[in-house]
Specification:
Elements (H helix, E strand, L loop, with lengths): L3 H4 L3 H17 L7 H8 L3 H7 L3 H26 L5 H19 L1 H8 L8 H27 L9 H24 L3 H6 L9 H17 L11
Helix pairs in contact: 2-7, 5-6, 5-7, 6-7, 6-11, 8-9, 9-11
Length: 228
Amino acid sequence: MPLSTFHNLPQSKRTKILETARRVFAEERYDRVTITGLVAALGIAKGSFYQYFASKMDLFQTLVAEAGTRKIEYASTASAKGTGQGGIFGELRDMYRGGLRFMKEEPVHARILARLTEPSTDPELEAVRKATRVQAVSWMRNWLINGQRCGEIRHDIDIDVTTHVLLAMLSEGLSAAAAARWGFEPEELARTPALGQQISEESLLAIVDGIFDVMCRGIQEHNTEESP
């Protein structure tokens, strides 16, 4: 987290530093960002950087915390409005609708969080990535178990397999489906946020609904007619 010297800066300068750093990390993988490149983009001396942040990771985690807070706000707003469908699937659907809306309206913040899913040669980031994955797996596993307890999820599923399949579907799968539907990758949206204006609310909801349709109903056609 930022050092006390950073908090003592005028609000305008703090905002400019974070906005610029956010853009740098959104455009480049964490491994490729250097302190030299950062201070050049920020317009400050290297010595000043270390008065504000203990390290590159310190700055990055500040941006991740900020982006995470924004994403939670989107998910909470979507959940509060709700779809009227109820149940654990309705709640999860609303949460991911909020998440996709976050990707559309806050693409730079979204790219910062996406950096956490990318394999890295940096040991610090790799440790953070693995810890983030462990938390996600634990959350999804508990969601499935709670769903079984309340009678909304089958009891004969393989919890471990289902956990990882659903996580992939709701992360990489959701992002890939959005990119295919919208015609541009999340990286392009982060570079040119105005592209988000081309994304209709109907398109956004249809992507999430399509994924949840597969989750809830599967893809196999069931013939209801009895064989002679």
